[in-house]
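User: These chains co-purify. Model them together.
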Amino acid sequence: KQEVTQIPAALSVPEGENLVLNCSFTDSAIYNLQWFRQDPGKGLTSLLLIQSSQREQTSGRLNASLDKSSGRSTLYIAASQPGDSATYLCAVNNDYKLSFGAGTTVTVRA
Amino acid sequence: KAGVTQTPRYLIKTRGQQVTLSCSPISGHRSVSWYQQTPGQGLQFLFEYFSETQRNKGNFPGRFSGRQFSNSRSEMNVSTLELGDSALYLCASFKDRVDEQYFGPGTRLTVT
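Assistant: Joint model of the two components:
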């Protein structure tokens, strides 16, 4: 059974600081890994998708890396803004379903 | 392009009743998955549908069921509601099983 862990559970940073969010998973036989953002009481917004054959994916201020063999992914958010405050979830796709971590709740202080 | 829509957005039911939730995927997407999100268990996979067929199922009791129609719209049904069924139910729409998945805003179900 795939286990996904996200560290830290919560993070508070001043505006402008870079954010580093970690995700680890136990079964490396994955098809892809997806990072999501969730605002309180809302659905999930897809941020980045990394296929199993890729090492990195970038979108604007966001960069995600994937090391499938060691079961790790990292999401970097550059120059954080108060609008980046949300819960960030990583989800691993194996067996054609997503297994989610518990998320990292980020607060960016103005 | 319209996103994933879910109806209703909020629902309050009494223990023992049944409920039906609806999900309309993005145009052109033939696959729909359902997830339950609770504070204690996080996000858990319920089931996946493709071309009106259930392709995958999570570890939920038989009270949870679903179906998909020929236009790819999907419904999930929960019978004999329990207090523990209170949750945010999310559906995801995607083209292929290894493609990016797009989630709807969810249906917040409260069982009293």
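Residues 84 and 108 of chain A are 7 Å apart (CA to CA).
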